[in-house]
């Protein structure tokens, strides 16, 4: 089996919490406690758990938005925390994040064109074909009207705004996209549309996802493998169907018991998508 694209080993993240009053003692909160995970090229690892379990903190460590207290992160064989200068810029291009709330992650004063091309500008890379042509092509890929490239985020619905965030992530041709609760703020019907978009883009480009979520019904539609977090630790991990059909940890069983069972449209969509994917793979072979 090939080497993983991403390997995180024994990650720890601690935060100092001040007590009440002038003489309050400082306590330490361990948000991530000895977490190890791997993501291979072209696969989707779903990191699931309740709010406060440490999922998003783990994602931010991997994206190097915050520093680790202990542990190592390797990406394509390179130690991430040793990267500086141009190497760090290159890493930020290879690993992109799609955030939960599209409106708070998009500058309300910038047009779609400026938002989508910003990663290339910040990295001092040329915009292929010019900003307008490049933006319109990306908007078409994510299912947006390319004639709306001069509009602002507030002029789009939540699902459309999230597609802008996805387009921005795609602008630098990443190898790993971290989707941090990227569909949890959307209506169920819009969730399905965005999930289908994410899967189609992965089929076309071959990149990997680290998919952060608490909704296991959503996770089942997109994940290749699943890692379950509780109180800062990974308590169970494995292939998606194994984890869903034969959970070993009591916490995993608790999460699965809370999943609404009446979602036939999700299961039907998953079966159609998997059948279509197999047909494409067989046609390309």
From TrEMBL:
UniProt keyword ATP-binding, yes or no: yes
Entry GO MF terms: ATP binding; ATP hydrolysis activity
SMART domains: AAA
Domain ABC transporter: 6-256
Swiss-Prot/TrEMBL keywords: ATP-binding, Nucleotide-binding, Transport
Family: Belongs to the ABC transporter superfamily.
Protein name per its UniProtKB record: Peptide/nickel transport system ATP-binding protein
Lineage of origin: Bacteria, Bacillati, Actinomycetota, Actinomycetes, Glycomycetales
